[in-house]
Amino acid sequence: MLDGSHHAYSADSAFTFEGNWQDFARIALPNLLLTIVTLGIYRFWATARERRYLWSRTRFVDEHLEWAGTGMELFAGFVIVLVLFGVPYFGVSFVSQALIARGYEALGSALGVAALLSIFYLGGVARFRALRYRLSRTRWRGIRGGSDSKGFAFGLSYMWKTAVGWLPLGLLLPWSMTSLWNERWSKMSFGPFAFRSDGEAGGVFARFLLFYLAPFVLFVGGVIMAGMGMLAGYGIGGENGVALGGLVGLIGLVLFFYLGLGLIAVAFYAKFYREMVGATRWRDLRFSFEASTLDWVKLLLGDALLVVFTLGIGLVFLSYRHWKFFMTHLEASGEILLDELTQSRTRTAGHGEGLLDAFDMGAI
Amino acid sequence: MRSTWARSEPMDTSFQLAAEWYDGRSALRHAGELHWDGHAGLVLHAPTAHAEFAVDDLQFADTRPRQIIYRRKSQPDFRLILPADMPPGLAARLPRPSTYGRWIDRLGLGRAAAIFAVTSAAAVALFLTAPAWLGPRIPAGWERQIGDALIGDFGGRICHTPAGDAALAKLLAKVDPADNAQDKVRAGIANMDMANAVALPGGQVLLFDGLVQQAESPEELAGVLGHEVGHVRERHVMTALLRQFGMSILLAGADSGVTNGVFGLAAMGYSRDAEREADEYARARMAESAISPLGAADFFARMADERSDSEDGPAVLGWLASHPSAGERAQAYRAAARTAPAYPPVLSDAEFAALKSMCADDPDVAEFDFF
Known about the structure:
The structure holds two protein chains of two kinds. By secondary structure, chain A is an alpha+beta fold. Chain A folds into two domains: 277 residues, no CATH class; 72 residues, no CATH class. Chain A has ten helices and eleven strands. The longest helix of chain A has 77 residues. Chain A is globular, with a radius of gyration of 25 Å. By secondary structure, chain B is α+β, with helices and mostly antiparallel strands. Chain B starts with 15 loop residues before the first strand and ends in a 10-residue tail after the last helix. Chain B is built from 15 helices and eleven strands. Chain B is rod-shaped and about 110 Å long. The chains are: A alpha+beta, B alpha+beta. Chains A and B meet through helix 1, helix 2, strand 4, helix 3 and helix 4 of A and strand 5, helix 3 and helix 4 of B.
């Protein structure tokens, strides 16, 4: 493999995670301490340290990944967003309130709405740029990824596609989500080659319909439960028993409703990621993501239990758990020609994912 | 696949060791030897590639189990992978691996954490106390400009009639002795059915019509007006504004932007000490102008009844509430009253009536709606 001219594989998993939580704790716990004593400023450096660990313990085929991003550039990104967007936003809301106070309610409200719309737009740009930033700082065999687009066009797509997705009672959301995924990934590249993605909404639409059926199913089930509770209560304690039984049934219904809805959301996202990762390609590589709904439920339940039983300290381990989950279930198959995998020529931004950081979102 | 130097021959000199590298132009891996001349020069040699550069060209990039990765300043994409257990002489020449970041590595984790903690505590203390000492030092002219920018003319919601304006001006002159017109507090009655009064940034005081309707004597209004003027004169408004500004920075993420503004200003609180200072100010001006404090005492007594906290109520509650308890305040006003000579009425009955009917009689005033 040293000449690296041609490489094919199939037996083992292409992505392997070799980290362990004890090593990660030696990074995450001092990070927590430093973040607290610096009033949160250290979190940018903490993020970079965590990623350096997670990436360097992740092997793709025969070489480890490298995270080449720095804490300073994340901090710079945050400051840029604060100055470029935070200050104008503050100014606009100030002017908008001053207008309302003077009796120009319509103008003031319009200005407020414009500020909210621009946040919506920047949210789309931020999603794009976060992915671009992560790819541009991820190195494998010295090669990095990136994008030639700055994401401003994607911000517009994000706005109108999301709006159209919600309009017919949310029925087109699977379309807007898949379409935005395709659009975003198709503008990304690694080395000289672009990613391609052609996922279709049809694949996830059936799962999405669960959201619409669920309330009815749950409601009917809940009414039956409440009725049975009342009957049982009547059997035990007459009139008072009915009230008590009905109440127990009602509490059951509410719990059932929220848990049921959460479960449907997990089932939808599990299917969505399987579909979309499966529809994403790079050169001759095909990807797949094999996490079932049950895997996701286990991950999220584990997260919740970890955080609760460590009184919140477990929060610092969630990034580890999620990365490991992601890498365990991610697969790739195909061929890489190492001598044609040359360095990316995309421009890189000198600052981090400040925009996304400001809106508090994840990259994928 | 196994790492390359695991298979290489035992090293015969301390100046040569197995190395792997990527040139940053393609993904091809080069495996060979690193030769160090003992000074500043490094040579990488492999069957597939050859490179020469200075030790100073290397920068630390990353650590892996038993490996350290360097990049080159002159070629940022270049990656040199060396075993972590390299000869000590070479290790001393190479850039040190970074753990926490440059400052913290230099200080050590414990010392850095202690220094940061002390600095942060000082910053928090400064931030929390800043409104109290910074507020009174901000020039009144600036405050007026901020106030005008925030409130303007209140959207025409302030009631005006010639007789009412005259009565209000007379009342104000007695509790606000400032001579020149520019420094004078601007008072108005807002067309809003709430028993409340506010001091706004820029020396603007508003009595709400609800409060005026509730007042049983002009002395009550003089007491409330004097109290709000006290907030302006003691510079409490700027302090409260700065405090609210600080809070809005802290809560920047949670704040939707619609909630603050005028209504936030109206709701912004003063400290208990500030309320006491404003009360003391009001009593001093009323004493100077020979206004009976019994009206204000009645007002607070009525407030005390409404809130069902009495003069004998537990002192702890009064201490916890942001305002001093109404009962306590009623008592303080009553104690300030002199026994003789009797106080002249602050306004004539006609003037008091003009204040009461001001909002009903103003045809141009705007309704105070929240939207």
